[in-house]
From TrEMBL:
One of its GO terms (biological process) is menaquinone biosynthetic process. One of its GO terms (molecular function) is carbon-carbon lyase activity. PANTHER family: 1,4-DIHYDROXY-6-NAPHTOATE SYNTHASE. It is an enzyme of class 4 (lyase). It comes from the Bacteria. Pathway: Quinol/quinone metabolism; menaquinone biosynthesis. This is 1,4-dihydroxy-6-naphtoate synthase. Its EC number is 4.1.99.29. The active site is at 146 (proton acceptor). Belongs to the MqnA/MqnD family. MqnD subfamily. InterPro entries: Menaquinone_biosynth, MqnD. It comes from Sulfurimonas xiamenensis.
């Protein structure tokens, strides 16, 4: 039996979308799944080095790894009227060259932030450390991601919503592409199709049994938030639109790549549809 490792972030939406497999609700023939949880920039860096077969990534990273990884259509997280937040101490005024903490160079929020605030002095740190760094005065501001956007300290306030920056740059009412899953091109195509089908089923089963799965995650201390915050958070980032990419989400990812290319972050302009797993392969193979 092949052992397959899935690398994802430790935030509640990734855990929720994977744990239907971990709890044995979904399986795949001749395959044993295991998982590892690491912060998103660590995952991005390891994807750049080709270390994982199946890995959660920031959508902004993908053009850099397109030759080595295909994008999966499932376990995706978008913001729609919400997203990462730039926070500061309550009442503080930021100068143009303010010092800011971001969760990683290759995250979507970092790409958008660097375009919107070209004079800011950026430092990168684990997303779990950003809020405290602002409170301690180590940085003037920070970009909060994951559950922190719902739970940050009352001594802090929002300077700007990343959603507003996205809307200004995208010029359309498109959801903000944050994170998805990628699979190594070293994996045989027919096996990649099976992995995608299994992961898609896992996200759907998780959604179909949201209350029960959420309770199990809470009872096992697998998430860092309480029940009411978890419920709200999952509706933001692990909702029904996370099961499989839709047409509007494809347009949003392409717009992100277009913006990144226009501002010199990518060496070429790509369309996401050209880098998905060709699911028709399996039908053709057995026809």
């Amino acid at each position: 039996m092949k052992k397959t490792l899935i690398a994802h972030s430790p935030d509640a939406d990734d855990i929720f979308m994977y744990y239907a497999i971990k709890f044995g609700w979904v399986d795949m023939n001749n395959t044993k799944f295991d998982n590892i949880a690491e912060d998103i920039q660590t995952l991005n860096e390891k994807a750049l080095n080709g270390e994982y077969e199946i890995v959660a990534i920031s959508f902004a990273l993908y053009p850099h790894i397109r030759k080595d990884y295909a994008l999966l259509r499932t376990a995706v997280s978008f913001g729609d009227g919400y997203g990462p937040k730039i926070i500061k101490k309550r009442g503080a005024t930021l100068k143009s060259n303010f010092k800011v903490a971001l969760s990683g160079k290759h995250t979507t929020n970092a790409l958008l932030f660097r375009i919107a605030y070209p004079d800011a002095k950026i430092t990168y740190m684990n997303f779990l450390e950003i809020e405290q760094a602002v409170l301690d005065g180590k940085v003037d501001a920070g970009v909060l991601i994951h559950e922190s956007i719902l739970t940050y300290d009352s001594k802090l306030e929002v300077e700007c919503e990343m959603w507003d920056i996205w809307q200004e740059l995208a010029g359309k009412d498109l959801p903000l592409p944050l994170g998805g899953m990628a699979i190594s091109r070293s994996v045989p195509l027919n096996k990649s199709i099976e992995y995608e089908q299994t992961l898609t089923k896992a996200v759907k089963v998780a959604r179909d049994h949201k209350h029960k799965l959420s309770q199990m995650l809470l009872e096992r201390d697998l998430v860092r938030i309480d029940a009411s915050t978890l419920d709200k958070y999952l509706e933001l980032y692990a909702n029904d639109d996370s099961i499989t990419l839709n047409e509007t989400q494809f347009k949003a990812i392409n717009k992100l790549f277009e913006i990144g290319y226009k501002h010199g972050f990518y060496d070429s302009l790509i369309k996401v549809e050209d880098f998905m797993i060709p699911t028709e392969y399996k039908e053709l193979r057995y026809s």
